[in-house]
Amino acid sequence: MQNLRRSGRRRRLSWSVLRLAGLGVTLLLLAGWAAWPGQADAIGGTASRLASPTHTSGTTTIQTVFGLRRTPTPTRTATATPIQTPSPTATASPSATPAPPPAPSRSIQSMVDAAAPGAVVTVPAGIYREAVTISKPLTLVGQPGAEIRGSDVWTGWTRSGAYWVHGTVPTFPASNAPCLAASNGRCDWPEQVFFDGKPLLQVAANPTSGQFAVDGSRRVVLADDPSGHTVEVTTRQFWIFGLADNVTVQGFTMKDAASPPQLGAIENNGHANWTLQSNTLSDAAGAVVFLNDASGLRVLGNDIARGGQEGLSLDNTTGAIVRGNTVHDNNSELFDTAWEAGGAKITHSTSLTVDANTFSKNFGAGLWLDMNCSGVTVSNNRADHNARTGIAFEVSHQGTIVGNAVWENGWDKPTSWGAAGIFVNSSDHTAVYNNVVAWNVSGITVLSEQRSDAQPVVDIAVHDNTIAATDDFSPGNRYAFRWLEDYSGMLYQTASNNHGLNDRYWYPTTGATSSRYHWTGDLSQLAAFDLTPGEHGGSYISTQQRDQTLTAAGVPTAQEHH
């Protein structure tokens, strides 16, 4: 069995913005393609010039210095409630769609540059194809229909044999992040192409319908005839890049960005008092949002979807509030989920509130708190249909996990320790209570793991939860509630004060011959489990009680077929 990533081996890339030549690695935030073709010719070896984009505002060059961040990448060979958006399919539309509307008369960057510090900048409806740098305190408000896109419309495609080609796409910084085998390496390819608004699937060569490739001259190669269709190619890494404290970004749709792994298409770059509110954010190659090294951060009521690696990432924050967001369908490029991928990953953060969010259908953990988070409240969230864990609390302290509804998680890898609705791993002084946990591979798992960064697992209290499960043990081992230890540690010692209390269980039958619980060993009978510190006052509930509890929590009353 294996758990989630051994988080102590993670590292983080600390971004210092330096407008000085020759320092660090230059990342080209292409605020408009019009300034790029001459440089692209030298890189890609082609003199093709692209059609004018919907909006341009020049090329912004930002120098960066890379320090440590999170997991090291191994060497590889080859509060408003947002609206849930459907997962895209990587196929070409069978019918033509109209071209995007005309360009706005002003760029957002020009509005920001002209504004006084502390101003409210209202952005009219329109598609703004630029990367915006905010270097002063202000509030940026998008009117309905205001969009920032990191892509440009490409026209003038050339037929070449069975394909259509056009170039050149920028050369983005190389990535050696670990990919799942099913990715076929594409998690390290940040290029993106959208055909009538739908993403095409990137392949190494010889694309078929619904796919694209990038050839050795950095030309985009399509199998589908682009005639009469809108083809957008991502040319920028970021939508918003922060160089100031006290910034609010509200009301925008933002999509299409070649953000690097572990970094976001929106970055505060370590600046404090940032608020992202009521935005619809999607289709970034790495993370959609990355906020770090600051206090007073607020992520409120956003729809965050289809991050190639993950939707939301926070690191080294104090007092952050993440509330009312829908984080769904992330890790679309199939990064290794044991490394860092899925819905939301939060590390090194204190006095954190994660409340009333939905984490759904992410390929990885729905919500993963890791690496010395402390003083965390995870409350009133919904975590469902995530490939690995619903809610994970790992190598962290003083957590409160309360009032969450967690169902249908862990089915991608049911033999993993982390295939659970709620997973508390190598953490201490944490309470898990009043949660509704149903139809996961395992309900609640507390693990004491032998690892260099592990905390003594002490003062874990799990109580007053409702756990619904079945005795279907194929393809993995199913448990309602288990306390696990992979070495002779402190988990089961009386002085550690780890205990369960008054949890309620539903199974199809109250009698069992297979294991449902674990404390020092597997147990099939609740009465035997109730004699251990792992549970006191545990009870079975009726089907009627199950249905009342699950329905009140908005959880289906029956398990899906697996």
Q: How many H/I helices?
A: 5
Biggest beta-sheet profile:
13 strands, parallel
- For the record, the CATH class of the domain at 240-552 is Mainly Beta
| Rg over alpha carbons | 24 Å
Shape descriptor reads globular
In the CATH hierarchy, what is the superfamily of the domain at 240-552? Single-stranded right-handed beta-helix, Pectin lyase-like
CATH overall fold name of the domain at 240-552? Pectate Lyase C-like
Strand content bin: 35-45%
Beta strand count: 50
CATH architecture of the domain at 240-552: 3 Solenoid
Summed over residues and divided by their number, the pLDDT gives a mean of 85
Overview of the structural elements:
- This protein starts with 14 loop residues before the first strand and ends in a 10-residue tail after the last helix.
- The chain is 6% helix and 37% strand.
- The chain is built from five helices and 50 strands.
- A hairpin with a 2-residue loop joins strand 10 (158-160) and strand 11 (163-167).
- The longest helix is centred in the C-terminal third of the chain and has 10 residues, at 543-552.
- The protein has a domain at 240-552: Single-stranded right-handed beta-helix, Pectin lyase-like (Pectate Lyase C-like, 3 Solenoid).
- The strands form six sheets. It has a 13-stranded parallel beta sheet, with helices on one face. Strands 6-18-21-24-27-30-33-36-39-42-45-48-49 form a 13-stranded mixed beta sheet. Strands 4-7-19-22-25-28-31-34-37-40-43-46 form a twelve-stranded parallel beta sheet, with helices on one face.
- It is mostly beta strands and 562 residues long.
